[in-house]
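tool_call: predict_structure(chain=1)
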Amino acid sequence: MTRLRQIDIVRGLIMVLMAIDHVRVFAGVPAGGPTAGLFFTRWVTHFCAPGFVFFAGTSAYLYGKKAGSLPGLSRFLLGRGLWLVLLELTLMRLAWTFNFDLWNYNLAGVLWMIGWCLVALSALVWLPAQVVGVFGVMMIACHNLLDPHVRSLVQSLADDPLAWAWQVMYFGGSFRLAGTGPRLVILYSLVPWIGVMAAGYGFGLVLELPPARRTRGCLIIGIAAITAFVLLRTFNIYGDPRPWGGPNFPAVFSFLNTNKYPASLLFLLMTLGPLITLLPLVEHARGRLAGALELFGRAPLFYYVLHIPLIHLLAVGVSLVRSGGVTPWLFGNHPMEPPPPPDGYAWSLWLLYAITALAIVLLYFACTWFVEYQRRSRSLLARYF
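tool_result:
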């Protein structure tokens, strides 16, 4: 099956938005706020993790069709998943913090989560794709049934030696490996993300359809997800019900302020619906912008691994220019547990977006080189990035 450029374009857009969020981390700008600039600077980046994970599942399906071997696909997903977990705990941990306090802080972030989702998918792919897709949708739709019982579950697990497994799977938080070892901080629990990847794998069936039916299928699924979000959120029926509106927080912000950790049904409907709807709309996009986004989408892991240390280094440069020195805050345990930024450190939004634009330009040249290298090379580096 030929490569579907609309997947790469949408994934490239996701990665540009991702850069905004990660510049925000090192800019000392809060994750949202009561003003439109602060709120939407954070909100637009909510599309990143759902899209990254969903389309990773879709790419796995398309890779399996191209490879033509189910055992080969399963082995590839298992190897790639473990590779991502290793990258998260080594290279990415250093890139985020620029420190070596491994005993007290090890981040289980997005690569950790995607890695273990790929490991799970390596087992699921032995089932028919329709079954995998239904399993994924059911996990997305049903995991919020646990919500009324979360408090009692947390209390009952307080002294349970296997409480760490619940944290990894659903609750998040931190724990020390083997009870007394290095401390692991869970940013993304595995539920419902395994379901998101499985649903993406099943979505590959839609992309196999003839063009007209594929477009119709994407629009039906995407618009149905958006409609379900609006109805469930309006009436607070299920999937993360909460009051919206308030004296210091505009109602529209509250309406869009859904739970990401763990990702609620409403959060996933709000983000995946527009992304799926966007696919047929960009299928025939041309021009430099579409070409740049497609380039980023063809090298997602290379982009991700490179953009964190690049942004971190740019933040060091900004600190040097603004104050004549590098603030120790930039060597804190980002993104989860840094200390409060120094007084007067937080960047303006215009500086945040200017540094994001600079990072994206630099990443464009790097990804241009890598895609060409990947095309010519048969090395493991080209295969696993």
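agent: The mean pLDDT is 94. Proceeding to next step.
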